[in-house]
Design goal:
mainly alpha, two-stranded parallel sheet, 2 strands, 7% strand, globular
Length: 58
Amino acid sequence: MLHVSEVLMQNPDVDSFEQLVQVIRERSKTEMFFRIDVKPPFIDTPEDWEDRLEAAFT
């Protein structure tokens, strides 16, 4: 299972929401499940961030 917190810890070089979306797209190729357990701490995190992360995973 892929957790947002895990992605953030494993990728300290990610410094924007858009970069996070790209990492989640890549990781979705090898993971079956996705859990949003934390809000991304980026200044450019949009209001619909949960929907956008879910869309990136699927």
